[in-house]
Amino acid sequence: MVLLSAGLSVNAHADSSTSTMNVSVSVEHSCSIEANPMEFGAYNGVVENVSTALEATATVETTCTSGAGALVTINAGASPGLDSAAVPIRRMSAGEGQFLAYQVYSDVARGSVWGNTAVTGVALTGTGVPQILTAYGSVMAAQLAVPGAYSDQLVLTITY
Fold first, then answer.
1. In sequence order, which residues have a C-beta less than 8 Å from that of residue 45 and are 6 or more positions away?
2. β-strands 131-139, 54-64 pairing
3. Please, what are the domains in the chain?
4. Which of 22, 43, 68, 91 could disulfide-link to 126, CB 3.0 to 4.6 Å?
């Protein structure tokens, strides 16, 4: 009886069918940018900085989709001098008519002004992971500025 019930419990063979499901996604070019403050410290145009510029650096972190081309530009600031947008003369202000000229460069030798055009911006290709750019700042020597707290605000733009 045990053998008979075992023979009756054999599963019957079932038929099957298959289908293909296509899966897709469109990856868009995307970038983000985050700038850290540039802090120069104390400036003295009569003694320490009479012949030597005061220098500082700041980092700019960008993250772009792998392979995406991008351009990082910096505007002229809140109190720019009278010149071109491509190579702006930037000025920090401590109030009405109180300015201290400075510049931001894209190279450690401080020879290439980091400006607001395709020619003066910094080009990069995305890797999918954060990339760190360095902004090199310089407050020009021998400026006889009124004592005070000078500041400016720059807008960095990443175009991709």
1. 141, 142, 143, 144, 145
2. antiparallel
3. 40-159 (2.60.40.1090)
4. 68
Is pLDDT above 90 for 159? yes
E strand map for the chain? 31-35, 54-64, 69-74, 90-93, 99-105, 122-125, 131-139, 156-159
- For 71, other C-beta atoms within 10 Å of its C-beta total 15
Determine the 3-state secondary structure of 105 from DSSP: strand
pTM, entire model: 0.84
Tell me if 81 sits within 8 A of 101, measured CB to CB: yes
CA distance 110 to 86: 16
Instruction: Please state, in angstroms and as integers, the Cα–Cα distance from residue 80 to each residue in 11, 89, 111, 122, following that order.
Output: 85, 6, 19, 20
